[in-house]
């Protein structure tokens, strides 16, 4: 993309009402625009990152054998009356009446609807195990929306639901989700720590939240510092292998790691003192096993191999897709702007032309642009007739991990400059070598 | 995907309340499930086609230089009060009140919000031309939703908006949209004829609807039969070339083609009698140029090169993404089921194992499956322990364009059968030759 043809409304001034850094940078980098309290437009740059995160979530869910579908944003109230949650949910549920006066709601989550889909088609254990998920807009009418996309009202979430014949199978589905979430967060450039959580209104005995450590996190967290040494890495996983998935769960959850909701001082005290850590964390996902809570109340039953008709064991598993943009920025920025991890960056590499209109500089930029595009990468070429300082400030603010700077002086020596946004380090390379290095970087993370 | 692990709830019986063939087949093929009047879940097979159409629409819009973003589903009422449409829109607008009693609505279209975004950031002609678009869920509270996804209440639409300094530039944007829409529909396997339309409540002097001819179309259409001979084909287009784009517009719109809303008997009579045709059509898109209607009422102005501040010229341009599934099926089916065009098929090729459990048949199917996946295609392997008749009926109903049938008898002679869903013709080929042929077919349409 050429910046002269793009829509990237960056702002110099810090918006007064944005309290946390991710909200400030998303506004300043022209990623989002508030349309009403807690309701945002995703401007082109923000939309690109949102789509990239969505793609990674889809890929990792499908790798785990989970099947995508899409439920609508609006739901009829009667499904929620059946489960008993229509009255319980309170003011966070946005209730709507249509032109015929029928009670509807904007879905805050989808346990009822997915259970309705399941019971509409499945009646035999032979169709199990089954995990269905979708990524769809949700609405929770927060009393006090704030922190930009971190606590919006209209938000984008992946929510998945497993249906299994037995508790044992359902706990394997739980483990599969834990494993797939660890992979997902690492691809997003995040360390998200599974912490024992509280079932809350959805209920559930087995539940973990995934937290990203950040000063601005809404939760206080307590953990054994050994958990931050763990990394999923590029290990091979067979998602059908119950023992292997259980092993990952144990590896990542056996050490103490809890939020304030479940914190237990006595347990924490057993952790050696030098490893006892307190910090703040941002919740970016949660997995639940809740047994037969919905399948009993809504009649989602199957015939087992013994001929008995039994309610299925279920769980629900969520990743806050839109919230993740905020979490990634909270975890990865400096005082000049955002620093995107390579896995989610909206453009792979910036190209800054220091002297737009200079024949050699223009030609070199065009040739870099074509070479990067030819390799399947998306460069963002700042081809505007602006001063170098302004171009650098924009690049730093929007946070592309790599930048190639092209100027007449360097070109006389046959070189351009390749700069890492994270380290700030630059090296002079021939244009061909710079392109080759950028291509190699992205091949390694694909 | 292996069918034994997928969620494809096909139905034998024809649903009683589905009046048109696309609705019946989408229900029977397990593509959609009605959750409330005019509100559907997209089951896995339907979701795959929806995503494929969305991808093609994105690709063609971006090829034309249009920039994607994403506006929220809910909008504050005050934007619509500014434009004057809040009271005009009537009962089709779903009006919502949040917990603080603020008036909101579920967006039926986005002229107001996109104009608000534009005026929030752009103030100079130097940032023009600009076309922004999104693909997002919309809601129109139809009094009588029907025909499945063809006239739903919650529907998925691509809507794009151009901002230009002059009427001339805006008409070029209009032409760009016309060209990109012709390309889009052809990639979807559809012939969509641009017909002169009526501005309706959005207004506009220049507007064309795109109609797909089908018996079940909601509009009566009148046209010169020469329009159905036109095809966009694989011609190269430079979207910046005003003359070229205008040429395409003239080629595709100079002959008589109108819906009943704009039909003019006297004009139609000038068409030679043997070329005068009457039929029914499904509207799958519309383009509008409406000048300064919204930019004046909402203050979307820029400073021109002469220093004058003037309202921008705008247009809006829509493609009914979810409705397209219905339109494609109406245009492409037989009495056994759907026939997907290669460009949108949910899976590229079916594999039917005639004797599940037979060692040679199982091994041959696995090897075909791996070869197709290895080539980047998505096969659907019917690995269930079912009778051949049931497997063929499912394949015909869900409409994959190609099927490879594998049985012990053929394998003794070293062959499998490759069958075209459209023609019903089969040929015996070695497994390697069958794979090569399927790969070649999709290479040609990519």
Automatic annotation (TrEMBL), chains A, B:
Give GO MF terms, alphabetically: ATP binding; proline-tRNA ligase activity
| PROSITE patterns in the record | AA_TRNA_LIGASE_II
Instruction: Give the principal location in a single coarse category.
Output: cytoplasm
List localization entries: Cytoplasm
Q: What class of enzyme is it?
A: ligase
Which example biological process does GO assign this protein?
Answer: prolyl-tRNA aminoacylation
Positions of the Aminoacyl-transfer RNA synthetases class-II family profile domain: 38-341
Q: EC number(s) per UniProt?
A: 6.1.1.15
Query: Which superkingdom?
Result: Bacteria
Instruction: Give me the reactions it catalyses.
Output: tRNA(Pro) + L-proline + ATP = L-prolyl-tRNA(Pro) + AMP + diphosphate
Q: What family is it from?
A: Belongs to the class-II aminoacyl-tRNA synthetase family. ProS type 2 subfamily.
Q: How does it assemble?
A: Homodimer.
Q: What is this protein called?
A: Proline--tRNA ligase
Annotated source species: Harenicola maris
- Please name the gene that encodes this protein: proS
């Amino acid at each position: 993309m050429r910046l002269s043809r793009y829509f990237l409304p960056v702002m110099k001034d810090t918006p007064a009402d944005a309290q946390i850094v991710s909200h400030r940078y998303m506004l300043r980098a022209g990623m989002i625009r508030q349309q009403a309290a807690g309701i945002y437009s995703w401007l082109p740059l923000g939309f690109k990152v949102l789509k990239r995160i969505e793609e990674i979530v889809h890929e990792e869910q499908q790798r785990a054998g989970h099947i995508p579908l899409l439920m609508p944003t609006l739901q009829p109230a009667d499904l929620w009356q059946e489960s008993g949650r229509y009255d319980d949910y309170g003011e966070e549920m946005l209730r709507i009446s249509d032109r015929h006066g029928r009670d509807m709601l904007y879905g805050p989550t989808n346990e009822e609807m997915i259970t309705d889909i399941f019971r509409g088609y499945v009646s035999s254990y032979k169709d199990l195990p089954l995990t269905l998920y979708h990524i769809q807009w949700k609405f929770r009418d927060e009393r006090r929306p704030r922190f930009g996309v971190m606590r919006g009202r209209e938000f984008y979430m992946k929510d998945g639901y497993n249906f299994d014949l037995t508790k044992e199978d359902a706990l394997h589905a739980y483990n599969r989700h834990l494993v797939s979430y660890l992979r997902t967060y690492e691809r997003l450039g995040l360390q998200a720590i599974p912490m024992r959580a509280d079932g809350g209104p959805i209920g559930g005995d087995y539940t973990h939240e995934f937290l990203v450590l950040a000063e601005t996190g809404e939760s206080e967290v307590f953990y054994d510092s050994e958990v931050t040494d763990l990394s999923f890495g590029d290990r091979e996983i067979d998602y059908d292998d119950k023992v292997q998935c259980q092993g990952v769960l144990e590896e990542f959850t056996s050490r103490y790691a809890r939020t304030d909701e479940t914190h237990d001082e006595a347990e924490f005290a057993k952790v050696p003192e030098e490893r006892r850590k307190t910090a703040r964390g941002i919740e970016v996902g949660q997995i639940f096993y809740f047994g037969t809570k919905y399948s009993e109340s809504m009649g989602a039953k199957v015939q087992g191999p013994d001929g008995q008709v039994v309610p299925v064991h279920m769980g629900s598993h969520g990743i806050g897709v839109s919230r993740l943009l905020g979490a990634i920025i909270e975890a990865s920025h400096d005082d000049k702007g955002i620093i995107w991890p390579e896995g989610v960056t909206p453009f792979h590499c910036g190209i800054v032309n220091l002297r737009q209109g200079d024949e050699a500089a223009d030609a070199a930029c065009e040739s870099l642009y074509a070479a990067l595009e030819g390799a399947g990468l998306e460069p963002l070429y700042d081809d505007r007739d602006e001063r170098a300082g302004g171009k650098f400030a924009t690049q730093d603010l929007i946070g592309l991990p790599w930048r190639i700077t092209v100027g007449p002086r360097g070109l006389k020596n046959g070189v351009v400059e390749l700069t890492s946004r994270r380290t700030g380090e630059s090296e002079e390379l021939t244009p061909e070598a710079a392109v080759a290095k950028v291509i190699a970087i992205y091949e390694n993370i694909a």
